[in-house]
Amino acid sequence: MNHLVFEKKYLDSFHEIEKYYELSIRGFSALVKLCRLDEKTKDTGQLCGEILQIFTQELEFENTSIMLRDENNCLTLAAGKGKGDKYFALEKNDSKRKIRIGEGVAGKVAKTGEYIYIPDAAKDKRFKTIGDMKVKVASLLTVPLKSDNKVIGVINFSHPLPHAYNENTINMLSIMGNFVGQIITMTELYNKTTGLNKALERKVQETTIELEKRNKKLQKSAITDPLTGLYNRRFFFKRLEEEFARAKRYKEHFSLLLFDIDNLKPVNDTYGHAAGDKVIKATAKLLKETGRESDIAGRLGGDEFGYIMLVACVEDAFVLASRIQKKFSEEPFDNMDIKPTLSVGIASTTLGLNNFKNYHQFFESTDGTLYDAKKEKDSICLY
């Protein structure tokens, strides 16, 4: 008889050891899978759901849920998982998802940082359900989720039968609770850092785009005459130097046209500088609209304009100058008895580059023809 009792106790102990090792293996498998979770998961709720999926699959728990501490010092249901997915999908803003710290089993665990095991929920007043979870609970184990000794939430394990968890299970889940807490904290930190980095990247991008726009405006203003929108004197002479060097090297000839507004001073003296500016703008507009897009037009002074006509002989330049001069004469310039006109001086590299030492001399020669044209006014003179 004693022999049979001993054998029964031996077999019971063996089965307990066997269950312990099986639980350890399952626990180790769960830890491995938890380590493999993608820390780049954007949503904390999604991460918690994946954690619970591992617990239900590897450790075969009936129902599990994770509640996280929020900014209002409450525990909020982040995810729930059970056999048959019995957890009711509550809206995120539903107050039924929340339990205050210190309230109920989960609230007390969050407050103390110590696990609570209720072997029979029907006999324990501390047990409190949240919302319509439709989960039958007889045994309840609530373990704190810790990160750096700070409780960030709790994980609940429940079973429809009483006395479902033994000491080994409770100890293992307590250890895993700390590990899960670290995973959630690291993921939230990663997501927060990623969010900050993305916000910083967007800000840098926006600032860069704004700086590029401003830089373009500055570059444009550095080479543009503010009144007319044409190139200014400095940039015009830079382009004249480049085109003169190209003509000498590659024989790509061009013509230079210099325009001067006749009677601009009397217009300013009689009608004011606003009227004079109107005449200047009209001249610039004609140069842009009548000339070719590839050519270079600039304002060289108060009433003087330059025009580089690319790949053009003196005859081509004369035709363009005549067209601009005619259109200018048709401008209404309302309420002006003094009519402004255009005088034009033209020179071309096709006449012989050896006649000009450099682009300065080329310009001065063209300016000389403009001087001759201004003597007669409303005329065109060729070099």
Main β-sheet, spatial strand arrangement: 3-2-1-6-5-4
**What's the end-to-end separation, in Å?**
137 Å
SSE order: HHEEEHEEEHHEHHEEHEHE
The stretches of 5 or more residues where confidence is low (pLDDT under 50) are: 84-93
Defining key terms:
single chain; six-stranded antiparallel beta sheet; Alpha-Beta Plaits; rod-shaped; alpha+beta; 2 domains; 9 helices; 50% helix; 383 residues; Beta-Lactamase
How is this structure best described in words?
- The chain is of the alpha+beta class.
- It has 9 helices and 11 strands.
- It has 2 domains: 2-192, 2-Layer Sandwich (Beta-Lactamase); 233-382, Alpha-Beta Plaits (2-Layer Sandwich).
- Helices cover 50% and strands 19% of the residues.
